[in-house]
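A reminder before we start the practical. When you read a complex entry, don't treat the lines as separate problems. The point of joint prediction is that each chain is placed relative to the others, so the output describes one connected object in space. Small molecules and nucleic acid strands, if listed, are placed in the same frame. In the example below there are two entries. Take a minute to note the order of the lines before looking further.
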Amino acid sequence: MSFHIFKYSFKSLLKDRMSLFWLLCFPLILATFFNLAFSNLMSNESFEKVKIAISTDHVVPEGLEEAMKESNLFDISFITEAEAKALLSEKEITGYIKNTHELELVIFDSGLNQSIAKVFLDSYLQVSTTIYNIIDGNPQIIQMGFLENLSLNDGFTEEIPASSSMNMVVVYFFALLAMTCLFSAVAGSYSISIIQANQSTLAARINVAPTPKLKAFLSMISATICFQFMSAIIAITYITQILKIDFGDKILHIGLLCLVGCFTGTMFGTLFGLVVKLKAEIKDMLVSNIIMIMCFLSGMMVLQIKYIVQEKAPIIAYINPANLITDGLYALYYYDTFNRYFLNLALLGGLGLVFCTITILVLRRQKYASI
Amino acid sequence: MIVKIENLVKRYGDLIALDHLNIEIKEGEIFGLLGPNGSGKTTAINCLLSLLKFDKGSIEIFGKEMKPSAYSIKHNIGIVMQHVAVFEELTVYENIDYFCGLYITDKKKRRELVEEAIDFVALKDFVKFYPKKLSGGLLRRLNIACGIAHKPKLIILDEPTVAVDPQSRNNILEGIKRLNAEGATIIYTSHYMEEIEQLCSRLAILDKGKVIASGTKEEVKGMISLGEKIVVETFNINEDHLAQICEIPNVIDVELKENTLTIKQRNGASNLVNIINFIAENDISYGKIYSELPTLNDVFLEITGKELRD
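Here is the predicted structure of the whole assembly.
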């Protein structure tokens, strides 16, 4: 590798406004838009407890308050029925529970919160009646720890993932990060165009120099990968530190995946630039569109697409670098084990190596019939 | 011989771009490749540099076979392309340093060479400029600096003055003479015959991929029958006079366009005194009278029947 070519290739990328915009600024702008668009969605994900009052005018059955607290669904207040009626009419509470002859839920409206309260109370009544019936017929069961094994909350709770702050929106940001890494394909396509003498006068001049083509190629793509990796690091920093999106604590693993992603993206661009015989501008446009399609299939625009592709056409999911990056980051975020992460990393690196090998083989055999 | 091209054949499908081209270039000369657009000059250069594969023939530079991996040969070649080939994102200094660095690895030496190249093309005031901020002439000078900064023994300039203003053109031509004086062998392609005449010690004229004439300027001009041309600005000449002029020994053609009479002589003959005497004897009023030697365009015209710029 030539450090001289590497240095100037990196400098060129830094000074090229188009590269700076598409490879560095565009992902940041998109991340900002994502954050604005999804901020409501993210806030909606935090569940607000249902405000329920329990009338103190009557005796509350033993165990009800405890069951309600354990369910983690309710914000309970103990007030008189008159006060409860007043609060209900002012919509300060969803409803109130009174125990005249039997437990009753008083509500004025219908809705999700009212349904939650109703379903809980029905379930409580059903379970408590069943328990009383069982105990009536078989009192010694209490000594066998029957009551300790009961739980009212099974139907209301969710499984908690490895990450403490589960957030589906983060997948959009993973796809965005995949796009940032894979945009190096545009720079890769440009690099290959200035290696081939038949592509431009600049390329012809470089070919006349006593620098082996492979050496120049490796130096240029190294600069591209470094530049793009730098963009990815900036994007990660921006998303996690400024936009406060939680990417988890496995930052080194995220970095490694992004580095391999930049390599694969660059090599995809070089291969594309090498085999497609079109004008440079058209190639740039095509390669960036292909990257966007890859990102779309990995769920960047519509999250469900990722799962549809994975279910209906898993082979596409396995050969789509954007999906491999997204899925690798997803695996890091949601699972404690690294199996799925390393599978994605290996597939991504493998794809990059295949692209690289084909590029080098084609490049070495290339002789120009016309310039 | 610095360059030896033997029986070079290059085809683009049915079109023969180079047809058994033979050229030999000696050390220290400025060799001109002259020909109209499409005559095969650039194709010949591209084959010479191993940028293009060719169908037949052989190319030797510095006594060795030229091929894409002949890095020791490439190390001593400098190329100035027809179209400006620089990085838009790099400054003047950085561009020259980049291309020089492809040949010279020693940083200190490279810095000296880059400075020399900048002085040579007089771009000292523009070192921090980006190419898009340079005028056409300055851009051409940068293009030259990028090609010659590493002090090559063989410099190939492919139409370096295309679309350049007269002042910049003179600067470029003077620079080429200086490079040659410093010991570089130059190959200069152009379709401007004046430049070739002014610069080159030997030349080859190309047409349809073939060398139709080669040698020194005098040798090439000596290949045709045309000698000097006498041009007379005249106002009252008639058909009889023209017929009588045609009878003068060694006159091969007479042409009258508006008030300008052109009398062409056979090669090696001089008729200026005879013509002046004829004008005086026949009381023909006249303005300027001057004599012209045949140009390379005349050579091309006589051999191919068409003008160089056709």
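Discuss with your neighbour: Residues 247 and 299 of chain B are 24 Å apart (CA to CA). What might explain this?
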